[in-house]
Amino acid sequence: MSHDDIILQVRNLRKYYPIEQGFTRRRVGQVKAVDDVSFNLHRGEVLGLVGESGCGKTTLGRCILRAIEPTSGEVHLTTRSGSMVNLLQLNKKDLRALRREMNMVFQDPFSSLSPRMTVLEIIGEPLRAQGVAAAEVESRVKDMAERVGLNPGHLNRYPNAFSGGQRQRIVIARALATGPTFIVADEPVSALDVSIQAQILNLLQDLQEEFNLSYVFIAHDLSVVEHIADRVAVMYIGRIVELSTTEDLYLNPRHPYTEALLSSVPKPDPRLVEDPMILTGEIANPANPPSGCYFHPRCKYAQDICRQVRPELKEVTPGHSSACHFAAELELKGVPSE
Amino acid sequence: MTTQPTPMLQIEDLKVHLPLEEGVLKALDGVTLTLNHGQTLGLVGESGCGKSMTAQSIMRIAPRFAQMQGRINFHRASGQTLDLASLDPQGDTIRSIRGGEISMIFQEPMTSFSPLYTIGNQIIEAIRLHRTKDPKESTAIAEDMLARVGIPDASATLNKYPQQLSGGMRQRAMIAMALSCRPALLIADEPTTALDVTVQAQVLKLMRGVQAEFGMSILYITHDLGVIARMVSEVAVMYLGRIVEQSTVDDLFYAPRHPYTQALLKSIPRMGKKAKHRLESIQGSVPVPINTPTGCGFVSRCPVAIHGLCDRVNPPLVPVDNGHSVRCFLYPEVVAAAQQEGAVQHVS
Amino acid sequence: MEINSMPQSAVVNLKTEPAYEILSQRQLIWRKFKRHRVALLSFYALIALYAIVLLAEFFAPHGAFERHSSHLLSPPTTIRFVDAEGVFHLRPFIYRMDNELNRQTFQREYVEDTSEKFFLKFFVEGEPYKLLGFIDSNIHLIGVDEPGIFLPFGTDALGRDILSRLLLGSRTSLFVGLLGLAIGFVLGLFFGGISGYYGGSIDLFVQRLTEFLQSLPTLPLWMALAALVPAEWTPIQVYFGISSVLAIIGWTSLARVIRGKLISLREEDYVMAAHLSGVSERAIITRHLLPGFTSYLIVYLTLAVPQMILGETALSYLGLGIRAPAVSLGTLLQDAQNVQTVTLSPWLLIPGGMVILIVVAFNFLGDGLRDAADPYRHS
Lengths: 338, 348, 379
Known about the structure:
In chain A, 29% of the residues lie in helices and 25% in strands. Chain A has helices at 57-64, 92-98, 119-129, 134-147, 164-176, 194-211, 222-228, 246-251, 256-264, 304-308; strands spanning 6-21, 26-42, 46-50, 72-78, 84-86, 102-105, 182-186, 214-219, 231-236, 239-245, 314-317, 320-322.
C-alpha cells in the first residue's frame, strides 16, 4: 500500500475527562480516556482496535468521528475530492456536509435504532439529511436494503419486528446509505449470537470489497479481530501499546500485554492442553494510572526501568510497533497458525 | 473418577411454558439431561435457547406464572431422591436446598449481592443458614473461603461492600459464597461473560481449581464454545428449548453430529486460522419460541432437512454412539426410535 | 401419529410473523392499554363524564340557580316502583315531599305525600337554558310533572337542587384542571426543555428555581397567590386566575420530568447515530427527542389532572378560589363545612364523593397509560 493511499491520519489524539468534586465543581484530576494516540488508516484497509473494557477504544472511535469532542490532536480525512481535511477544525456546517463520507456502526442493534421510525425512515435519514429528494431516498433505501440482505418489502415495519441480526443489517445499511468511504465499527458483532456473528462479519467483509471501504474495527474479541482486520492496534489505558499487521501481531507479539491477551482467550478446542498465562490483578484505574509503563504492575517481565520510564510506541521490526522497553529482547508467545 | 458414574441430577422431559400475550412461549420444550456425581456438564446455546431457564427451573426461581411439567430428580447425599419440580417454590424444602446443596453463580454478581450489606455479612448469613449457627466458626469459614478463591486480604474484604470490589473480585466473592456451604451441585450461569478476557482467564482457572478441590458437580452454562472446551468434560447443546446433542467434549468438537452443532462450530472465527476467509454462517435467525409448530426446531435453518419429515415430526434424543446422543433424523437410530414410539409410521 | 395427519402449514407457520410486529408504537400502546380493564373503564367513564358536564344543563333536572323555596335542605327524593298500597309499577315514580312540623320534636321534617304518584319522564320542559352557550332550550333529560318535584340528591340551604349544581360544578372543576394543566404544560415544557437541552448555567438556574418553588409550602403559596385575584373580577376571569395559580406551582415537577427525559434521550445511541449521519439539531429535536417522550408526557399529564382538581377544590373550599355565584366542587363542599349540617343533611357531602370518583378515575387511567407507554419493555 503506497503512502498516498492514506484515508485517515490520526495524530496525537487526546480525550481527557475532568474529575470534578463538590458544589463548586472543583477540578481534582482527570481521566485520560484517550492519551496521545496516532495511527494511519489506508484505503480499503481494516484496522482492528482491541483492548479490554475501559481501555478507551470506544472513546477513540467516537473522537475520530467527532461524536464527542476530543481534547486535542488532529484527525485528517482524505475526502472524495482528494484533499485532506482536519476534521477537528471544521465548523458545524462543513462537518455535517462531510458526514456523508464517514459513519459509524454501533454495537447494540436495539438502542441504536429509534423504535418510533420505520426502517425506511431510519435508513433514509442520512440521505434526507444530505438533501436527497424524497423520491430518490426511497429507491436508494430499497437498493441498500437489498445489498445488506433485508427484504425490501419489509421497509415499512418498525425495528421491533426484526431480530438482532436483522437489526444490525439495518444499522449497517444506515451507515452506508450515503456511500461513505470510512466507517468506524464499534463492536458490531459482540451483541449478537454466535450463529449471527458470522453472517454480519461476512456482510461487513463483502460490503468492504464492494465499496472499497476502510474500517476502524473496534472489538474486544481477539478471534473476530484476527478474522477481519489487516492490521491490529492493541490499547491499554488510553494508549496504543502495540500496532502491527494481523499475522505478525498474533504470531509474534511484541508487547507482554498482547501476549497475555492472546493466551487468555479460551480456544474452542478441547485437545489443546494449554496453560493460559494468567495475569495478576486487573486493569488499573485510569484516573490514577501507575507510574512508568502502565502495564508494569501486571507484567511478569517488568524491570526497574518499567516502573520509572514510560515507553513510547516505537517500530521494532518494519511495520510492527510496540510500547515496551524490551520489545526487541523478549521472546513472547503468540498463537501458532494452523 | 474411575468409579462407575452415579447420577446426581436427572431432568426428565422438563417443559416450562410461559403464557404471554402473543401466545405460549415454550422456554423449555422437553429437556432431558443427566448430571453425574463429580461431573462438569456444559450447557451451551444461543440466547433464548432455554439454558438459563433450565438453571432457574432447577433452583425453582423461574417466573411465578411459568407452567412447569416434568421431573427434576435430585439425588441427595442422604440417599433420598427428591423431585425438585414438584416442590413448592416458596416452601421450606427448596429453600434449604437453595444456597446449600445446590448453589448458583450468576453472570453479574452485582445483582446477586445486596449493595446494603458487606460481603462478609452475606456470606456468613448463608453459612449460618445452612452449615453452622456458631458466629465465630461461620466467620472463620467465610474468611477461609475468600482466601481460597484468591482474594488478597480476606479478613479486610469481609467488611467491604460489593460495590467496593472490582468485577473480577466480586465474581470471586460470589464463588466463595456459592462454595461456602459445600454444595453438591454448583450451577454457573455465564459466570465470566461480563468479565474481561484476562480476568476471565483468572476466574476460569479458579473454577477448575475449586472443582478439583471440592469435587462437586458443576452445571456450566455458557454461549462461549472456547470456555466449554476449556472447562467441561461433557456437553449438551440446546436449541429452541430442547437438547439437540449431548456427548463428551472431545466428541462434540471433533465429531459433531447435529447439523446445528456442526454449523455452529464452523461459524466461529478461530485464532491461528488463516484470516480473511469467509465464515460459514448459519442462515436465518433463531425463531421466537412462541406457538412453534411440531417438528424439529432447527428445520427452518437446516441445510440438510428432510422435507416431509423434519418439518412434521420432532425427532427424539437418541444415543447414536457410545455416550453420544443426538436429536436428528439424519441418523437411522433416531428414525428407528421414532418409529418405535409411533411418531413415524413410514419413511419413504 | 401418521405423518399425513400433521398439519400441512407447519413449516409455513414458522415463518409468518405475528401481526403485532408490524404495528406502530401508537397501535402497540393502545393494544396494551386495552388489556388494563380498570384503566379502560376509567377512560370511558371520564369521556362520559366530560360529555355529561359539557351538556350539564340538559342532564340536570333543574337549573343550578333555581330555588325551590318550599324545599330547603330537602333530603333526596326516593325513586319507587312499589306504591303505598303495595302495588308494583313497572315505571318508576316519586311522591311529592312536603315540609311539615313534627308535633313531638318540634322540628321541620319532610314527609312523603302518598296521595299522588308522579311518574319519571324523559325530556320534560323546565327551566330555560342555553346549551353550550348558544342553543336555546328548556328540555331536561329527566323530570316529573308539576306539582311533583324531583330532587335525586336533595337540596341545599337555599333550596337548590344538588344534582344540578353538582353537574355544573364538576364542569368548572374538570375544566379548571385541564386549563391549569395546559398552562403548566407550556411552562414546564419551556423550562424543562431549555434546562435539559442547553445544560450548563441555564440548567443550573432552572434547577435551583424549581427547587425553590418546590420547597415552598404549597397551601400558603396558593393562598397568597389566590389573594392576588381581584375581588371585582368576573367569574370567568377568576376561573383563569385560579388555573394560572395552580399552574405556577404545578409546572416544576413537569419541568424536571422533561429535563431528565431529554438528558437521557440525548445519550441514546440512535440520537448519536442521527448526529453522525449529519442530521441537523432541529431535526434531531423534532424527530427523535420530542417523540421520545410524548408517551411519558401523556402519562404524566393524566396523573397531574387530579392534582389540579384537588387544588381547585381545596382553594374554593377555603373560599379563596372560585367564588359564588360560580359553582365548582369546592364551593359546593363549602356548604358542608360545619358539623351540624353534615349530621342533619349528609347529602351535602355528595360532591365530595364526586371528587373522589374523578380523582380515582384519573389515577387508574394514568396507571394504565403508564403500563402501556413502553410497549417494548417485554419484547
